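haha ok so turns out i had the wrong file open the whole time. this is the CORRECT one, sorry everyone. sequence first:
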Amino acid sequence: MRALSELGRAWMAGTVDAVGDDLLARRGLAQSAAPPLVVAGNFGSSWGERVIRRASQLARASDAQLLVVHVQIADGLTRPQGLNLHRHGELTAELGGSYTEMTASNPAQALAGIARGRGAATVVVGHHRSRLGELGHGSVASRLRRLLPEIVIEEVRRT
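then structure:
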């Protein structure tokens, strides 16, 4: 009854949103915010492990969850599914993250959709193109930066 009375007074005062949120929080009924998320884009490359480890470091540093996404390119070409993917899934589990696979014609758009849909704070991808290839086609990271200007995009380069 008391809560209804408070809500009634807040409605009359025009402050029902603030008071309602406070009432829910005091009663333990407020939805807690989802924890931050770091997404690692895994394309099955030989240095994918470095991408996953870097994403894991960022997730730990910001108390975030780790999601590793393998994007299989749907272009009709058959690519061998190497041991890298199996190892990357195991590594993700060892690091406390989640691993998922998907097929898409545009890897950057697929990763952007997942990052946006799940409220990711950061996306980590490998640097896959030569300088010439980047000029001609652009990199996944540069496309992600255009698609997700509000999200931090980090590129891991092969050393």
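The chain has a mean pLDDT of 82.
again sry for the mixup
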